[in-house]
Design goal:
alpha+beta, TATA-Binding Protein, five-stranded antiparallel beta sheet, two-stranded antiparallel sheet, 3 helices, 32% helix, transmembrane, transmembrane helix, membrane
């Protein structure tokens, strides 16, 4: 019995490897394009379709950092202390490979500024995202409202995990 791989089998293996390399390259390209795109301001109305969704929202006054953390924890976010600075806190939740649902997808949030002063909220996907149907816009709006001096009361429908 010969242990050599036949030409037909070798062709299948090469085809599968080429498909895997192509898929990996496509994901890397989408991720690079997404990271290079600028943040956009969320509009007044939820968009139907957004290419490369990521948002920047100005906040008139930031609460104390402990309160920021508590409010974002209510949405299922945990702190990423490795990428923080004195003027910025980073949070994330979800998995980049878990699901397309905004409740399960990897999302990253950065809050910049100084407590008691103006700041900004940055919301983006933590993995390769080509488009969105308005869920990232809605999450940005809800997170921004929660960081206002008088956030909405509990019980409202939220995009929590």
């Amino acid at each position: 019995m010969s242990s050599a791989i036949g030409p037909f089998t070798a062709g299948i293996v090469v085809g599968i490897l080429a498909a895997l390399v192509s898929a990996g390259a496509a994901i890397a390209i989408v991720l690079r394009l997404y990271r290079k795109r600028p943040y956009r301001q969320p509009g007044a109305h939820q968009p139907g379709l957004v290419w490369f969704p990521k948002y920047r929202l100005a906040l008139p006054e930031l609460p104390p950092w402990q309160e920021v953390e508590a409010r974002l924890t209510a949405f299922g976010f945990g702190r990423d202390q490795d990428e923080e600075s004195r003027d910025a806190l980073r949070f994330s939740r979800g998995s980049p490979w878990l699901d397309f649902s905004i409740r399960l997808a990897k999302m990253e949030v950065t809050v910049r500024g100084r407590p008691g002063g103006p700041g900004e909220l940055l919301v983006e996907a933590g993995g390769p995202v080509l488009f969105d149907t308005g869920d990232t816009w809605e999450l940005t709006r809800q997170l921004g409202e929660s960081l206002q001096p008088d956030p909405p009361r509990a019980g409202a429908e939220r995009l929590c995990s």
